[in-house]
Amino acid sequence: MNTFHQVGSALGVAVLVAMSASAGGGAVAGLAGRVHPALTGSTGLLVLGLVLLAALVGVPRRTRA
Fold it and tell me: Per-domain residue ranges for the chain?
């Protein structure tokens, strides 16, 4: 479990850095321009993770006792 956590974190950071680098811009104004896509991307990754969790785990079914 710990290895998967490390690999997933590294992959997530790599995606966010790539999104931030693609935003470009100047020195001061560019920082705000880079933070916005990174936060948007991290929100998207969070939503994707929640959707995958809901799809893979599913809702437990009741059994009759």
Answer: 2-56
